[in-house]
Amino acid sequence: MGKNTPKDPISNVWDIWDVDNLKNLEINKKNFSWNDISTKNFSDLIIKPKKQGHTNYQRYYVEVLNSLGNSLALNLQEKVEYKGRSAINTVLWNKFVLQENFPNVAVKYLDKKMTLDPFTFLSVFEVVKSFVGKCSQKSGIKQHLLKRTDLAAKQLVMEMLSQLGDSVKRYYLINFYNYVSPFDKIENQVKKAKRQPFFHPVVENHCEYKSKKGTSESSIVNYRSQIRRFFEWCCNTLKEFQEYSPNTINVYMFKKEHLTEYKLFLEAEIRRENCTPNGARTHFIYVKEFFLYVYQLGFLKDDITKDLTNIEAKEFVYRQIPSNKQLQMFFNAVSMYSEAPLIEKTAYSLMLFLGLRLNEVANLKWRDINIGNKTISIKGKNKQSEILPIPELVLPLLKNLKRGKQGYVFSKKPNQFKSKLYQNFKLYKLISDMEAEGGVHLLRHIYITKLSYLCTPNTLRVLARHRSDRSISFYLQAC
């Protein structure tokens, strides 16, 4: 193998994981409810296929999925009073703003923001809450007793701004501070030229390689954004890279000390609660994977990822999944507040009752759906299409959608639709008092967890579209 011919980075990804973490993986692994059942025998508690024939197994999958719907006991057709998206801010105001004991100046500021889009209003509220809380902690004064002069803490603002980077929350914090301290304003540096598209030749080379190895497009998009995030930090933070942009940064210049410094930064972000341990850990693994590839290409003399431990995080984090009542409240919230209730309800239903991922839902096309046969074709992470039965609860929703010819089921702009589903899920989740942690992918966690009590391990792998029990174990939560 020539120097410039890379080894298979995909197969070497596990080399990046610490030995101790791999041991903990087995120690911390949840005991499945079906752990003591072989894949050839069936528990008395689960639904059993009558025969091993292909057709009977298809019927068995239908039966299992419909049993899942029955176990959740949701009424997706429940009639509720439609209030519209404009009413969401009032709900957020009553549930959160009024419960915070904010000082009057903060309440007045947020009142002026009530006309914003709900997701933006929620983000502004979160920034104000964080800043007011830190002012209270630093001054020793209770939140509701803070005065305008107490909130004019410019040094604290500058510290928080340095942690926010180019986040839009930076703009929200500056805006609030300038409202509190109008005679000592901070220039809003967020309003600048549009962010340039990211196209680094070495990163693109790796993305092309990953694509040829079968990595899904959505995973590659995510990987590219992870490396961009690291490059942007380098250009904004490290002296050696200040003259470069993320598109021109020289990979020959990187040393182990740069990755070590970045790891320290991510660990500090965890302490500041700007990111989760698992999120930081996953991101850092992506960065290490990239530089392992760069080394294998021969662009680096030494493997700068060698002996560089990962960020500590619990590999398995178990939490209670939402109750049936909370899920009913969630879908009722969609019906009450969504700008397109049927579309969003159908999209979220496909995630909950069939385990579709956000990207799979957004890119679903009418040619993938056979209403007559009650089947749906899904192109998963491995780029292979798999045909699954459409659950009884979801079928009426799909039938009621305005069908196109061969286009997308939900939106002509799937990426925008993904963002909308992601943001709106957070809003509906708060409205429905759903305390379970996680974003929209939580619906897939619920799907796999509930299925694990209704079918055999083999069936679970088929319906979850995962080949290994290890992959499935990441999804299982406490019921």
UniProtKB/TrEMBL annotation:
GO MF annotation terms: DNA binding
The chain positions of domain Tyr recombinase read 317-479
Gene3D superfamilies membership: 1.10.150.130, Intergrase catalytic core (1.10.443.10)
Q: Which residues form the Core-binding (CB) domain?
A: 197-295
Q: Keyword Nucleus: yes or no? A: no
Coiled-coil-forming residues are: none
| Record's keyword terms, sorted | DNA recombination, DNA-binding
Q: Which InterPro entries match?
A: CB (IPR044068), DNA_brk_join_enz (IPR011010), Integrase-like_cat_sf (IPR013762), Integrase_catalytic (IPR002104), Integrase_recombinase_N (IPR010998), Tyrosine_recombinase_XerCD (IPR050090)
Q: Any keyword DNA-binding?
A: yes
Q: Name one Pfam family in it.
A: Phage_integrase
User: Which Gene Ontology BP annotations are present?
Assistant: DNA integration; DNA recombination
Please state which protein family the record places this protein in: Belongs to the 'phage' integrase family.
Q: What is this protein called?
A: Tyr recombinase domain-containing protein
Taxonomy of origin reads: Bacteria, Bacillati, Bacillota, Bacilli, Bacillales
